[in-house]
Amino acid sequence: MVRRASESGRPVLFDEPWSGRRGRADSAEFEAAQEEREFMRAVIAGLFDLEEGREVSVEDARRTLGLS
């Protein structure tokens, strides 16, 4: 299992057989926590960019994203 996880780069969840949850709730909880971690990493990266002076105006961002 360790080799398969290492090769695939995907996490492996081990379920507790006595929990009665059969992995589904654990998987949903794991994915929600993963999304939260990714969001927080993006927030931290954005704050770091601001500290380093890497910012653009709203108008420039809209133009770059094709929203204007």
Layout of SSEs?
Layout (H helix, E strand, L loop, with lengths): L1 H7 L15 H28 L6 H8 L3
Question: Would you give an account of this structure?
Answer:
With 68 residues, the chain is mostly helical. Helices cover 63% and strands 0% of the residues. It has helices at 2-8, 24-51, 58-65. It starts with a helix and ends with a helix. The mean pLDDT is 85.
**Which of globular, elongated, flat, extended, rod-shaped describes the shape?**
elongated
**Residue share in β-strands:** under 5%
Largest sheet: none
The portion of residues assigned to helices is 55-70%
Helix and strand sequence: HHH
Mean pLDDT: 85
> Stretches where pLDDT falls below 50 for ≥5 residues?
none
Strand tally is 0
Gyration radius, in Å: 19 Å
Structural class: mainly alpha
Give the N-terminus to C-terminus distance in angstroms.
49 Å
Question: If helices are DSSP runs of H or I spanning 4 or more residues, what is the number of helices?
Answer: 3
